[in-house]
Amino acid sequence: MHALIASVPLFLALILMVAFKISAAKSLAASFLVTVPLAFFIWKMEPATILAFGIQGFLSSWDVLLIIFGAILLLNTLQATGAIETINNGFRNISTDRRIQALIIAWLFGAFIEGAAGFGTPAALAAPLLVGLGFPPVAACLVALISNSAPVPFAAVGTPSLTTVTTLMGDITGAGFDVNTFTRELAHSTTLFLGLGGIFVPVMITTMMVIMFSSERKIKSALEIIPFAVFSGLAFVVPYFLLGTFVGPDFPSIIGSLFGLGVTITAARYKFLTPAHVWDFSEKHRVSKAIEVSPNTIKPKMSLIKAWCPYIIIAALLLVTRIPALGIKAILQQARIFVPNMFGVQNATFSLALPYNPGIFPFIVVSLIAGFLFGLSGKETGKVWKSTIKQLVNVATALFFGVAMVSVMRYSYVNTSGLPSMLQEIANTLARGMGRAYPVISPVIGIIGAFVSGSCTVSSILFSPLQFQTAVILGLPAVHIIALQLAGGAIGNMICINNVIAVTSTTGATGNEGKIIITNCLPCLIYYVLILAISAPFVF
After folding, report:
1. How does DSSP assign 463-498, residue by residue?
2. What does the pLDDT read at residue 297?
């Protein structure tokens, strides 16, 4: 009963967005308003505790909001200077086939950004690029979200995996495992489960695009691209698996994607495995450009290398600032805003390292430099900033209420009722009902955690201790169960509210959040089934 009650805010948000087509901002505001009385009357949290964790969530949402702002600002700046037009032409020169464009930009370039930065940047960066090429906004959102799955456990140079190990440190040593060995085996298992399934993610991407956005020749267009789609999957997955198995959790996504980009772009240029038929969206779905700019805006011509420089610089800066051995990461993380124990409530702490936030550095910094170097006037720069801020109003509202709701649900174990947290209650009920069949539900718990929190890392922080302890009690291999938790957290990114808000806000698709979530439930389910089939010999 408590698990059902705890699920009410989550179901309410979904019902309002999907059934009633209410915006994410209003739906999440309503869910937050329902969460508060549940926390007070059922979980018996003190008012000060609810307020403290609600404010903590509100403040924490700024971390994501800054990333979205930086991504939109960069896109608007490059759009105003004509760089996006040049980049678009560059991708068209590789291939005019929309299926191949989606694989190169969303699947591989998105994987590189995920490996370098993570935390919402890949979808927020790849989706606008696709819209700039002429993709329908909803199609760009769907493709970017589905692509942002396999690379996720190794985002930001392995942060989700490494954070999981840190969270489980006491459990790992207490169960007699060596931490370093556990870490290596976890990276191997995760790249195996997600990697083998990930080979077919490009097939899901291209099939979905063709079926949803074609008016004719659907089946043939979907079948003829499969060889190239599988090839692009292997181009990423093979180095991804090898790096996870022999190097560890730091570089499977970032290095694997770079290798995959080089191989796939070369194959596309030489028409290796590419269909003779060039596929495009049906006439009613075609769009001309991503974001409207002033008709008086001057769009000077520039070289492809110059147009790409801001993105190349961003990728390089993300890389050097995320590798601990270089020392820059530690320096950037030292300058932070820190608010401890708000209202005297333990763990109600807010911390934000502004220089380390990718929205500020490098996105905003590079946007300013690019605008100056590309000849954008002060007046035009002001218009770009004003337009960007205007685009963020509804997004900010949704994030503020959504993250605040998650924060209250996550810390609702701080109560006088003796109940575990709302999220823990849901997970415990699922575990008790499954017994030895628990591996079937293990990825689902990861999906739920990512769906409500918007983060594979947070999902693991919430549920990996439960997953580990349940595995030990049931005599299941703990390292494989934790790999399933990470895998679930990864594929949950396809449908998580935060990511959906991020891509809709950067592509002009606001209002389609419910449609996108429901549509992406199918590839999420397929990937889940693939993971279960691949992991079955190891966990049952």
Report:
1. HHHHHHHHHHHHT--HHHHHHHHHHHHHHGGGT-HH
2. 41
